[in-house]
Known about the structure:
It contains 28 helices and 40 strands. The strands form nine sheets. It has an eight-stranded parallel beta barrel.
Amino acid sequence: MPPDDRFWYRDAVVYQTHIKAFQDSNGDGVGDVRGLTSRLDYLAELGVTALWLLPFFPSPLRDDGYDISNYTDVHPSYGTLEDVQRLVGEAHARGIRVIAELVVNHTSDQHPWFQRARHAPSGSPERAWYVWSDDDRAYAGTRIIFTDTEMSNWAWDPVAGQYYWHRFFSHQPDLNFENPEVIRAITDAMRFWSKIGIDGFRLDAVPYLCEREGTNNENLPETHGVIKVLRAVLEEEFPDRIFLAEANQWPEDLSSYFGDGDECHMCFHFPLMPRLFMAVADEDRYPVHDILRQTPPIPEGCQWAVFLRNHDELTLEMVSERERERMNAVYAVEPKMRINVGIRRRLAPLLENDRRRIELINGLLMSMPRTPVIYYGDEIGMGDNLFLKDRDGVRTPMQWSPDRNGGFSLAEQVRLYAPVVTDPTYGYSAVNVESQERNSTSLLNWMRRIIAVRKASTVFGRGTLTLLYPENRRVLAYLREHDGDTVLVAANLAHTAQAVQLDLAQFAGRTPLEMLGSTAFPPIATTPYTITLAPYGFFWFSLVRDPHGTAAPIRSSALPELPTVVVPRGGVAFDAWARAVIDGDVVPAALGAAQHGHVIDAFVADEIDPSLAFVVVGEGSNRTSLMLRFAWDSAIREDALARARSGPREGWIADAALDSATALAIERAMRAGTELRDDDGRMTFVWEGDARPEASSSQRFGLAPGTQRWILDDSRLVTLHRRIPRVQNSTVAFLRHLRERGFEQAPQLFGSVLVSDRSGETWVAVTSQSFIQNPTDIEAALREILRTGTADERLIRTAQHVADALAALHRALSMPGSDPTFGTRPLTPDDLAGWRSAAHDDLTAIAASGIASIADVRERIAAAIDGLPAAVGAASARAHGRLTLSRVLLVDGLPVFVGFGEALARRSSPLKDVALLARSFDAVTRETIQASAFDPTADRGMTRATMLDLTARVREAFLARYAASASDLATMPSDPAQRDALIRFFRLQSALRDVRDALAGHPSALAGAVDALRAEADGPL
């Protein structure tokens, strides 16, 4: 099983099946537990994470097992308790939890409890286990559920000489939950199955547990009291188990079964299910919008469950009479398709086997803010048999193959518990698992794909839902948001193509990445975003940011209507009102429409420059700095983010990071050791270098994602960070340590601006370091050599110099210093196991994204990951961590390393740097070969074979020299095989992370990252 997670049900994909219908292992014509166990691999490949089993307990089977005669055993037709224990164990081994039925409302009339009660005297403790009356006029206001078969909720028992109460069939007497002994008995049954390993219980017919005269006997407070008692036992004894309530009620009554988070963990959202079909029938989103707006909020940690079809009818109880007539007219044109107050059809026949509509409605099921439940066989489009009685028509054997009995059983056909569907459209010869597994475009493989994509993001199971209201009501659109991730769902409910315009201005600058196809769409702007949808088509878009979390502000050429920030007359200061305007208007205007969080610090910089203020936005590990400049009494500024007013004085607020004077002012504050404070934090300006004259010039230096960089006096590089790192993960930590250890082949740190919060955590807002003039980075040099064919042995020597310098860098990083994060520590088997596990997680997530070109190399990648030894004779230490050839500069022939910033959490081994540089050699060559196909001068350069040969020689020279230069380091394994295995692993780990990063936020880099991962799977160039 995956690591314990009490909220596992929120991310689950549930599969519902009858044991009798899934697989017959002994040839008696009835599916059994052993047969189901033999098919668990199929469920794991489908991607489900929970298995909901219909009742498998001893029963006369007059209601398909819901008439239970023993709560703590298994029906002999299905197997034994030992079989169930093995099923649970095997399911858990595949990451699948098991949910069983806890049929709490009633028992069979054959249950020993009822037989004892009917023979006991009236008024005795035994009789009190059920609800009795001397006449059938009590509880007259209670509706009859099974209107097709039952005329009353009372049934006469000649043995007892009284009427007994039943809400369902007359052979299912209701238990009396006013009797504490009944509650204890149900609690004991719950304990029994929990100890066997059952992970959850569906509470059947839970609204009807208690009765009281003068009510409709549904949703009574007494019923909620019973559930609270059961939940309290579950919380105390089995805290990772869950209750799933079956309560076919209106949303306001249905949501009450969550209690205050102390009743059921999950409830089926019965009213939503028919409205999904209504919306498709009417080609109008209103039914879905309307019921979602009627649904009240639920307690934290609780979850809705939603299904399209299950073992019962498509219930139409929670719709109006008009809506019921409309549903019957579309989906149940023949009387035999109807039962009680509903429709007894499977999903595919309901939708006339229209693949487009089947995919659409499954796309809605999987993207709604609730846990999806799939009914067995719907993943392959199974049909029904309307000539079977009652609900049996949707409970026919699973269709595994075109062989005898659909591969369900070897029994003679007449011995099957129900006939296999045999009609030309839905029969087992046309619809079966075996055939669909071989067809890449089958419904089964499509379902596997959409489940995998859903599971890859917690936004679907745990995120919020925001409905969108475009003018075109044939399109249903909504946002799912969780933990910084945003998914846009747009679905065409019509049988014709539709265009829709969506107001996505708040996400301006983001790129919609279509999740099922990993296809990037045009970036979002402030203008309405147009999407065209095929008939019954839908899209899931992940609205991705730049990988650095930045988005360029998209602004109108005309000055927009700006908010006004009001500050006191005595100078710049921020009260709650001013902060709210900055939070809601200024921050999005400056940083783009991406969500950055709330303002947590606002520092007024009177001691530096009265017109400057520093704002820190965000919480947790994601923090962003924004520097604001107040320009008073000035002409209109086209770059203004907001207006400003101080009494009668008016002005503008602009982004100070774009102003060259800001970098000069910050360095002056570093020299002065200035400190700024607000109520929640402290901003400290620190000078850490040798004495330098005050700078007189400042000019912008290039464009780097997430930063503004300024060169002061051609000697210092001041970097103003947008996304600010923790100090231990920053360049500051590395350059401080390297200065202590006397390592000179890195920039010199001159100063920093640090932000400290109440918790004592420190973040880096600005750095000042030595500026390296006119360097050549090795990536550019190699690219030019390969392009022009001017290589000689100097390239080999350069690679060796880099190897020597890298060994010296690692020697410095492995030495202890004032920062305890540097130095070495033992590299344990647990560390290695953790690296393997994380790499497998990356591979699983990438495979789940459905990139076809990864599928055929997945096994090779997994084998390479497992090639990491269980133990390595070497120490662990920090490394550069982000090393590529572009971060190795040549200054007077000597390598200088720049761009430090390995996150402490990713500390592993310096051999990671070696692997990254080796990958970088290969990547440059691969890109140059690809570019040469479009270069008219390429015939004058190297051939592909020559490029590959040169790169291989340079790479091998680099690796051999590093092994020799670093042989004395504690971080270098003495066993060459272990060294090579670590380098191989880190190459692969880096390639996997590049693909994941591209999937998460940089779609334009995805194709290259995938190609690089495939190359790693095949080995170095």
